[in-house]
Amino acid sequence: MKKLILANWKMQLSFKESEKLARNYQAKIKNSVFEVGVLPDFSALEIVGRNLPTKLFKLGAQDLAPYLKGAYTGEVSALSLKQLGVKYVLIGHSERRQEFREKSSLLRLKVQAALEAGLVPVLCIGENASQKKAGKTASVLRRQLEEVLFGLRIEKDNALVVAYEPLWAIGSGQALKAAAAEAIQVMIKGVLANLVGRFPRVIYGGSVSSKNAADFLEWPNIDGLLVGGASLEAAEFKKIISA
Ligand code: PEP
């Protein structure tokens, strides 16, 4: 499997700005040895999808509804995302866990909905600064994985992605050292092997930029990157996916 680099545009751009950035990506980025995904907000999925060559860029969403259909005002179904050409969908990003109080029981339903619709869930996990300080990183990550994935049937390795994002590293400019990330990814893979009997890609996120991307990507167990702020400028993102 190729390493996977995902651009999470969050809610940083308006519809028009997303369209413009997609056009900039298209103009500036011609190839990559990596699989690359772009994750605009819901409103811009179609226009971004239309402006990016599908050979090079996969489309991703930042969230989805926990159910496929029904009276759930304001939600977006995995079925619609699939029809829009979406492949990857973030689930349990720390901003959703913190700002919107999303709990493991809800995230589990979202993973199930994504799998049922044929999307690839990108389950985000990560410890906060005080958990890290208390030496609880491994137990926190294990619990986050178990609470969401226990008993779920994952058909093949590439049907799931896990994004390891230490909370204190997101948007802070303080990335984890690549060697430390490698050791944690190995631990996560061990948990996943026991839990779902598969070896999904485990990617790293948290203050990745063109200055440190290559350091991460050279490690064998860092299967890719989730990039926030540094994906909002085409030239910078180009450097990352050329690392
Ligand atoms: C993220 O929010 O997933 C992220 C990794 O953000 P940043 O790259 O800006 O730290």
Structure description:
The chain is α/β, with parallel strands linked by helices. The protein has ten helices and eight strands. It has one domain (4-241): Aldolase class I (TIM Barrel).
How would you summarize what this structure contains?
The protein has helices at 15-28, 45-51, 78-83, 94-99, 104-117, 129-133, 137-149, 178-196, 213-217, 234-241; strands at residues 4-8, 35-39, 57-61, 86-91, 120-125, 161-164, 201-205, 224-227. By secondary structure, it is of the alpha/beta class.
Bound molecules: phosphoenolpyruvate
> What integer value in Å does the Rg equal?
17 Å
CATH superfamily: Aldolase class I
Domain count: 1
The helix-strand sequence is EHEHEHEHHEHHEHEHEH
Number of helices: 10
As laid out across the biggest beta sheet, the strand order is 1-2-3-4-5-6-7-8
List keywords for this structure.
8-stranded parallel beta barrel, alpha/beta, single chain, TIM Barrel, 10 helices, 16% strand, binds phosphoenolpyruvate, 243 residues
